[in-house]
Amino acid sequence: MAASLKREVFSKLLFIWRSVNSKVSQQCVSRFQTKQTIIKNIGSSYKLSCQWSYKHRNYQGELPRVSLVALFPVSLAAAKNAEEEKDQNETELVMILRKGIQAQNKSDYKAADEFYHEALHFVYKLHREGKIDDKRLLHLQTNIFDKMANLGLLKGEFDHAEVLFKDTMKGMLQMGLDKTDNALVEISVKLASIYASKQKFDDAELGYQFCVDTMAKKTKEQGLDADLDTTLLYGLCLESQARFWVYQKEYEKALENYHLALDIAAKYLPLDHPQKLVIMNDVSSLYYLKGDMTTAEKYMEEALDVAEVTQVPELPQFYCNQGLIFAQLGRFDEAETSCRKALKVAKDRDDQESVKEALDCLADVRKMKNSVK
């Protein structure tokens, strides 16, 4: 390939950090998506915690019940009335939060933000009226701050999300959680990604390393007794740091992390799990960057064997990647076939962004083909 064309091709590999509206589960936001024209979606989406099927927080979903402790003698009737009022208040709060989550899942971020603020004001009102104590206020407020922070991340409001995540962490620490608790580590991953998006690379590197070191130590100490959430969170941290290393052009470090994450995915996730396929695509993309097209082809074929059956959202990008690998190997007819497969799938899904990427793939393959004539 001509040197100028090669520079043009590789210039398209620069990362664009942004929050992603995950098709899998929009309320789980733990990673930034990269969109390229050539190697499509290396670190293909910021679906981290959702895709890893990781969940840990005892204050998410249905709000945990807190038993009433009678500090002074009260009649059974009074206690029953107090419990019923508490049930009604918490049911109302759960409904408000549920509406916020539903709006967020529909990408109606304005409505979601309004519901979360309504929930926060409702909690403050309960506290002013003496219906919840300081401890319960902290618990509920932290829950809502976390949801608002995730929403800010989805909207790309990184400064706002950063403040809210830090408030969430502060609340968790006040609730008695240790800084190495899984909940704190997950938020630390998000903060590291925010720092990376704001080009605060030193802070991002420190954040990612803290998360990886913390989870590596946990899984090593727990050994075979390590719970699934802890192991999957370790995979999440490894993958997040790997994408950061790629952005920093530290390809060997990135590959080491990706292979560790892939080992975890292979052991604990189903064969057709989307996260496993995404990692295989990312590994293939890294070998492409290193110039090892044979290994790049191997990982991409393995990913496509499953992706074609499961019809994952990233299928057009996988085809484009395969096409560009074939082109680098001089197999231009196969390369065009892969790009056309990407175009067909994208058109069938009415995915205009992927249509454009597939057309770019065809154009790039033709340029490569013409450059060797």
UniProtKB/TrEMBL annotation:
List all membrane-crossing ranges. Answer: none
Query: Where is it located?
Result: Mitochondrion
Gene Ontology biological process terms from the UniProt entry: mitochondrial respiratory chain complex III assembly
* One Gene Ontology CC term in the entry: mitochondrial inner membrane
Q: Which residues form the signal peptide?
A: none
Which keywords accompany this UniProt record? Answer: Mitochondrion, Repeat, TPR repeat, Transit peptide
TPR repeat residue intervals: 316-349
The answer to whether the entry has keyword Transport is no
What is stated as this protein's family in its record? Belongs to the TTC19 family.
Family matches, as PANTHER family: TETRATRICOPEPTIDE REPEAT PROTEIN 19, TETRATRICOPEPTIDE REPEAT PROTEIN 19, MITOCHONDRIAL
Can you name this protein? Answer: Tetratricopeptide repeat protein 19, mitochondrial
